Amino acid sequence: MANNSVLNDEPKIVKTDDGSKDGQNKCPKCGSTDISLNSKTGLLRCNFCRHEFEPEKVQGLETDISKLQGEIMGSGTQDIVQDTKNIMTLKCSSCGAEVVIDTSESTQARCHWCRNTLSINQQIPNGAIPDVVLPFKLTKSEAKAQIESFVGKRKFFANPKFKEEFTTENIMGVYFPYMVVDVNSHASFFGRGEHQVRVYNRGNRENTRTYYDADLYEVERDFDLTIEGLTVESSSDKLNRNSNKTNNIINAIMPFDIENSVKYNANYLRGYTSEKRDINVEQLKPLVDSQSKDIARFAANETLKQYDRGVSWSSERLDVKGRQWKTAYLPVWLYSYKEKKGENGLLHYVAVNARTKETIGSVPVHMPKLIGVSCLVELLGVFAMIFASDFKYNWLFLLIGIIYFFAMYFRYRNSNARHHHEIETKKTIYNLRKSDRLIKHEIGLTNPRIVGANNTRIKG
Question: What whole-number distance in Å separates Cα of residue 456 and Cα of residue 301?
């Protein structure tokens, strides 16, 4: 798909941290900085006077995506300064004490004299502090129940050592860094589609073949498209699907309810850990472009219901009129387990979306047991094939053991799990123009789908 972007001018930077001198809220009632999140209500709570108050929404970013023009970036998306040291000295705004913090491990600290919360909103490299944060909604006990239920359903083939060592007492609440992108675009598609009008068989009982009759159309779709809240990981460790970590689990628990995110505030991190963003916008643009095209392609599918044999696009084009970037901290409850295997071992995760309860994980498999049971299932398949000798396709019973093995393996490991950005990302079509012109009636087709069908392909 071609992508002719009109974003040639310098991006507009929106200071999302305006008014955040110290990166935190003070209690509007008593002025205390000892603030924490009440996950049950979603409100900030003063731990001194117990007053609860609404979190602040970020200002300055475009909320009507259809009005986006050019490149707009929150101040938290600016390139990270690589040569800034991790060890920093922060001066307490309350008592004047100087506190040393390692920013590679934490993005907030407490003064050890007056207990004032110190923020590093301005001191650490650009981009390490997000524009917005989505507060935790699930409590630790709720997350533990989700993880225990997920693992409990996968105990039969689980590694015995894992079952022995499994405990949810060590789960952690983590804010992971993401890049959230809004896109205002125009999409154009041109190709051919087929609508099935008849299906029938020819031949004798010993040699039967299925044929299809279909109407072939020339198809064109042209529409404006807004994409809201396209979310991609901005940690290189999570984007890298390497061999010793099941990082796809973090991707698979999306989407988040981004629309409920609020202005970044260091108080949200109290009691949780966080990771810093280490990828810049330029590095993420190819992935965002590819996923935007996927979303446009699937948006077009909503107007192609009649083409049950698929569509073969010969021309695909997405013109970006405006795009808005903001960095976000999104909440995840995380259980991890290091499987001792080989030199490095495999790091398994069970993750819970701390907003929606979506739970995906990887459980280490006890391969000897899975192979043994699969062999038994295969043996049953052989017996079934023998007793069903009159069945034309009785050889299919020989696949039962193999199918069982892979079905169980993927159920436990979820190595193919992913966020379906092409259908789960919020999008809106408007100014739709459709053209469907009948070309000819085709008979005797042997393929159940149109040749070259590509309207459901995914690249991002």
Answer: 8
276 and 310 inside one domain = yes
Q: pLDDT tens, 396-441?
A: 788 899 999 999 999 999 988 999 999 999 999 999 999 999 999 9
pTM for the model: 0.84
| Last residue of one domain, picked from the residues 71, 98, 124 | 124
Q: Token pair for residue 361?
A: 């994980």
Instruction: Provide the domain limits for residue 375.
Output: 367-413
Amino acid identity, residue 214?
A
Cα torsion for 298, 299, 304, 309, to the nearest 10°?
0
Residue 82 to residues 48, 89, 177, Cα–Cα distance (Å): 39, 18, 17
- Which amino acid is present at 434? K
Residue 440, Cβ neighbours under 10 Å: how many?
9
Please indicate, yes or no, whether residues 286 and 385 belong to a single structural domain of this protein.
no
Judging by beta carbons within 10 Å of its beta carbon (0-12, 13-18, 19+), is residue 319 exposed, middle or buried? Answer: middle
Partnered with residue 272 across adjacent β-strands are: none
Q: Give the list of residues 6+ apart from residue 226 with CB closer than 8 angstroms, or none.
A: 65, 66, 68, 182, 183, 184, 185, 427, 428, 430
Low-confidence ranges of the chain (pLDDT < 70): 2-8, 18-25, 81-116, 118-128, 205, 240-245, 341-344, 389, 392
Answer whether residue 335 is part of any domain.
yes
Residue 190 CA to residue 168 CA, distance in Å, equals: 52
234 vs 128: CA distance, rounded Å: 10
Residue 51's CB: how many other CB atoms inside 10 A? 16
Per-residue pLDDT tens for 236-287?
Answer: 877 766 556 677 888 899 999 999 999 988 778 888 888 878 889 999 999 9
